[in-house]
Amino acid sequence: MTAYWCEHAWLDDTAVAAVRVTVDGSRITGVQPSATPAAGDRRLAGLVLPGFANAHSHAFHRALRGRTHDRGGTFWTWRQRMYAVAERLDPDSYLALARAAYAEMALAGVTCVGEFHYLHHGAGGRPYADANAMSEALVQAADDAGVRLALLDACYLAGGLGAGGHTGLDDVQVRFADADADAWAARMEALPARAGLRLSAAVHSVRAVPAEQLGTVAAAAGAAPLHVHLSEQAQENAACLQFYGVTPTALLAEHGVLGPRTTAVHAIHLSDHDVGLLGGSRTAVCACPSTEADLADGIGPFRRLRDAGSPLCVGSDQHASTDLLGEARLVESYERLASGERGRFSPADLVEVLGVNGHRSLGWTDAGSIAPGQLADLVAVRLDSRRTAGSAPTQAMLSAAAPDVHTVVVGGRVVVADGRHLLGDVGRLLAGAITPLWDEP
């Protein structure tokens, strides 16, 4: 039994002073407000929040940070730089990069990550001896970094979509692809389950999965989470309308992809009908605002989606910034810019986005709040830093940032203490994993 005395802790929808949280193994067993610390309690200064769920990650994109700003362009030109990194990765280098990326997430308060995984095979599309070698690298990386993993194995079958239909795979995309949705499902299902891992499914996009294959992916997902990139780019919408005669959202609805187990990632360029389809089906929406800004994607209608019935969560996506507090704050900030109003999402709304909603999107219904029976995920944030000094604890969500996180507990295990990850110097790990990917061959 371990007890944490929290200077402030987020309970239900507000910050409460002097809270004693008792933990047995991986679970919270008791929560006592207005408590006096007992001998042997571990004291957590500042504000203790529930663990954050990073609902959308591409771990290998972390190698692109600070490397793509010299040419301007669009998402499509950025994608060519991303493909160049993908081309150079193998299971060993992927393990090193993902381990460091997940450790960086833990330092920012992430206790659970949803890895949208589509880099499956070797050069030329040749499967590794273990067809899931790249998946195993991600599983090992998350375990080493001390975070839970929802592996969202993405079906990827076509190179793109135009007015004339789906196009063939290029020399890099063949590493992403299986022969068809049945082959994808067979490979995905061969990966063994284990503690701390959720095996889940993804449709990469309507560009990469032809309509006739969507139902197979949805069926293979079963009751597990199903994620999909949706309407990140206006070009995707135009191509889908030209070839299929409907928007990407409507196409997914026609083929049984939408619903409470599904999370649509980005969901930026939506019609009113699309918003109604997503909200009416209780499909969750994952906003990735730092990536959406970095790639000039646009601002999503996230308040309208929430009001229509879609639970919201957030992800760091390509890791232009690994700061989940920042992602949540940007959801509110961009709403202010788009609407001309403040307070579109309250601090309590943002805690729910980071906690309960994110974990449910990834298949954990027993995480994301500080309450008895929940997984013991605690994130302690300083209230005395140059960013947070003077902030009311109830409003610190809108002033704190990743460097203010000083302690992270994942399922009862201390992964970050005094701002230091159990793996040591994470900056050194990142540099060691990323630099070789840019060295001249």
Concise synopsis of the structure shown:
The chain has 441 residues and is α/β, with parallel strands linked by helices.
Strand order of the largest sheet: 3-2-1-4-15-16-17-18
CATH architecture call of the largest domain: Alpha-Beta Barrel
- What's the CATH first level of the largest domain? Alpha Beta
Spans where pLDDT lies below 50 across 5 or more residues: none
Number of helices: 13
Explain this structure.
The structure is a single chain. The protein contains 13 helices and 18 strands. The protein is an alpha/beta fold. An 8-stranded mixed beta sheet has the order 3-2-1-4-15-16-17-18. The protein has helices at 75-88, 91-107, 133-145, 181-189, 211-221, 234-244, 248-254, 272-280, 289-294, 302-308, 324-339, 347-361, 426-438, and strands spanning 2-11, 14-24, 27-32, 42-50, 52-57, 110-117, 148-155, 160-162, 165-167, 197-203, 226-230, 262-266, 284-287, 312-314, 378-381, 405-410, 413-417, 420-421. The radius of gyration is 21 Å and the shape is globular. Helix 2 (91-107) runs parallel beside helix 3 (133-145), helix 2 (91-107) runs antiparallel to helix 13 and helix 4 (181-189) packs parallel to helix 5. It folds into 2 domains: 2-50 and 373-426, Urease, subunit C, domain 1 (Roll), CATH 2.30.40.10; 52-361, TIM Barrel. The mean pLDDT is 97.
Please specify the SSE layout and strand pairing.
Blueprint: E1 2-11, E2 14-24, E3 27-32, E4 42-50, E5 52-57, H1 75-88, H2 91-107, E6 110-117, H3 133-145, E7 148-155, E8 160-162, E9 165-167, H4 181-189, E10 197-203, H5 211-221, E11 226-230, H6 234-244, H7 248-254, E12 262-266, H8 272-280, E13 284-287, H9 289-294, H10 302-308, E14 312-314, H11 324-339, H12 347-361, E15 378-381, E16 405-410, E17 413-417, E18 420-421, H13 426-438
Parallel strand pairs: 1-4, 5-6, 6-7, 7-10, 10-11, 11-12, 12-13, 13-14
Antiparallel strand pairs: 1-2, 2-3, 4-15, 8-9, 15-16, 16-17, 17-18
Helix pairs in contact: 2-3, 2-13, 4-5, 8-10, 11-12
